[in-house]
Each structure stands twice: as structure tokens, then as C-alpha cells.
Description:
307 residues, alpha/beta, Dihydrodipicolinate Reductase, domain 2, 2 domains, 7-stranded mixed beta sheet, 6-stranded parallel beta sheet, 10 helices
Amino acid sequence: xxxxxxxxxxxxxxxxxxxxxxxxxxxxxxxxxxxxxxxxxxxxxxxxxxxxxxxxxxxxxxxxxxxxxxxxxxxxxxxxxxxxxxxxxxxxxxxxxxxxxxxxxxxxxxxxxxxxxxxxxxxxxxxxxxxxxxxxxxxxxxxxxxxxxxxxxxxxxxxxxxxxxxxxxxxxxxxxxxxxxxxxxxxxxxxxxxxxxxxxxxxxxxxxxxxxxxxxxxxxxxxxxxxxxxxxxxxxxxxxxxxxxxxxxxxxxxxxxxxxxxxxxxxxxxxxxxxxxxxxxxxxxxxxxxxxxxxxxxxxxxxxxxx
Length: 307
């Protein structure tokens, strides 16, 4: 039985609707080449045919706020129904992907689907508003809602995820990434908290020409994340331990997105959250605490954030 997905986009600079839809549905080479996302076309066209398709799901309905973009998305990714109102997906699909990173709109766009019992995936970050996170919380807890960065599943981090103990006592984890703390810091937070069981204790944003966060973990490890703003493409993580160190450049978007989408559909099948709900909320709390630290120029403790 074919299971039907709806996809909602776009946000500025974010081509995830095209990436996700290509992975699930396959793609039209001509349509994707003409979509306006040449980087996505380049990495998608290099993948083997066996890597497309996710657990019998098909994206059947699409909406973006721009009719021409919706048309291009449908043509590129073989989506049968382009809509003029995303709410028309209610009653027409089995689950929804909100493939936008403009967190300011996540709650309003997802609310009707969640209230009607549909499983929903929301692109990172879920929200940085505590009242919204409190309303999202029960849906996370019952496995109806999933939100994360694909870097939680990056193949380049398979080795430390599988055997972090081989590094000995971890001294420092350090990462650098492009653009802003709120929209891109979460990439590395998800990457790190996907491989260590440690929890964040506090965060201090440092004054510099970019957003620089020092996060203290409850196992004594320092986590340093630099969101570099406008710079050359950078998705990098270093792990320093007493027995081993590792340096990782993360670049395989296709694999991380495919794994993430597989996890979402598997959570629908099993009814169990793909990511512990408290972990998702902890990462959002780190983003919020970072905001406060920037505004108040102080170290902010995670126990100050109550969700």
C-alpha cells in the first residue's frame, strides 16, 4: 500500500523540499536541473538508483508560498498535486514534512496537522519560543512529531557515534559551521548530542566577529561551536580524547537526509519517537540559552530554561 506524504516549503536559501522530495520520489533530471538548485541537482544525480525511495512512502502533495516554485518542485520530484493552500493536505495525506527552517512559522503551519493526528516532521530548528515548545512537547512525547538536523545521522560521524569510548576521556569537542547560531548551530548540536550521552549544563556566547558558543557538558567536556556567518562552506567537527582524536568534514547531504527521512517513516511505523523527546527539547533549550547569553552577556545555565 502506497503511503502518502505532503511536503511544505520554502524558506530563503533552503532547498530541502527539493532534496527530501528527490530522495523519496526519485527525480526528473530535466526538472531538477531547471529547478534553480544546481547544488542539489549535482549531488542527487551522482547517487545510485537503489538509494531512492523510503519505506513505500510517496510525496503526493506539495505547497510553497510561490506558485512557480511549487510548479518547479512538482516537476523536479514527480509530485502529482501542487496546492495553493497547504491546509488542503488535511484528509489527503498520511503525514506531512515541513521542509522550512524559518522557525517563526513552524507552530502555525504544523498546528492543524498535529491536532488532526497526522505525523509531522519539522525542519530544524523546531522553535526557540518556550510557549511553542511547551505545546509541541506532548506531540514529541507520543512520537507524532520529529524535528532535527540531518547531521545527527551524518555518515562521516558513524565511527565516533559507534565507539566514542575508543577516544578515551574526551577533553574537547569543537565545531565550526556557516551562517547563524540559531539556524545553523543546531546542525552541530544535533551531531554532537547524537554521539554523546552527556547533557548540556551551561552556555556562554563569546564576543567576537561571529557567534561563538562555549557549552559545558555534565561529563566535564567542553563543547565549542563557532557559527561563522558568511564564509566558505564549513561543516566541521573535531573530537579530542586521551586515546585518540578525530577530525571530520561533513559534506554528504544526501546520506544524512535519507537516513533522517527513514527514521521519520520508521517512527510512524513503530509509534516510537526516533529521538528521545527530552533530547530534542534540550537542544532547543541550548539555542534559547545561547540567545539569552548573547543578549545579557553572561553564562546561562540550562536549568534556567523550563519547558
